[in-house]
Design a protein that fits this description.
Elements lengths: L2 E3 L20 E6 L7 E5 L7 E3 L20 E8 L5 E2 L1 H4 L11 E5 L14 E2 L1 H8 L5 E4 L12 H8 L3 E4 L9 E9 L7 E10 L1
């Protein structure tokens, strides 16, 4: 069995959405072995690093992360490699339509996987791509960027995907993952009333 760890490492120098310093985690040693045991305090935003967006992130009176069944975060997945595009549009997805199967996850490996994730001009999903994906009865989508969209007034990509019942996973590390079929797991922390949560994500090659 071959497992690919596709989670970003949590560290104080980790990449953040568009390089925003206020989103970097704080890691503080609060107890040492001399005091009995090593213990650390972690301060981390719910949308930093590899994480899952709950519907509550963008929709009023919507489902929080702790209310989503764990079964929604696991399932068959396809990794699609789409390179040399500033954004993924509907027309970029049409050639892969036969891979967009009901109940599956679709994970996008783009130029983001080979560049600095803190950059402003990351590859994102457009509104047309989100609409197309929401019509395929998918379980969810995952991106190799720290956001699924950028500079889109009203956040249409987020809203379309979340209103369509899709799980949205951001911040995946797909650089070393070949295009193909896998079994996907991304389990979020159980944060009461959370608008999202950090997750440990991995793929098992089918």
């Amino acid at each position: 069995m071959e497992i690919f760890d596709i989670s970003l490492e949590i560290a104080e120098d980790m990449p953040t959405y568009r390089g925003r310093k206020e989103k970097k985690p704080r890691i503080e040693r609060v107890r040492t072995l001399e005091e009995g045991a090593n213990e650390t305090r972690l301060t981390l935003e719910t949308h930093t690093g590899t994480h899952i967006d709950a519907p509550l992130h963008m929709l009023p009176l919507a489902t929080s992360i702790d209310q989503i069944p764990l079964s929604q975060f696991i399932g068959p997945a396809v990794v699609l490699e789409i390179r040399n595009r500033p954004a993924i549009n509907r027309e970029d997805l049409v050639p892969f339509e036969h891979f967009l199967l009901p109940g599956h996850f679709v994970l996008f490996k783009t130029d983001n996987s080979f560049t600095d994730l803190s950059r402003d001009d990351f590859v994102y999903l457009t509104e047309s791509a989100a609409t197309f994906l929401s019509q395929k009865s998918l379980k969810g989508i995952g991106v190799d960027a720290l956001g699924v969209e950028r500079n889109q007034p009203g956040h249409p990509t987020h809203r379309i995907l979340l209103e369509g019942g899709l799980v949205v996973v951001e911040g995946l590390f797909l650089r070393d993952v070949p295009q193909g079929l896998y079994f996907f797991v991304a389990l979020p922390l159980k944060i009461r009333g959370g608008d999202g949560a950090p997750a440990r994500a991995f793929l098992v090659r089918i």
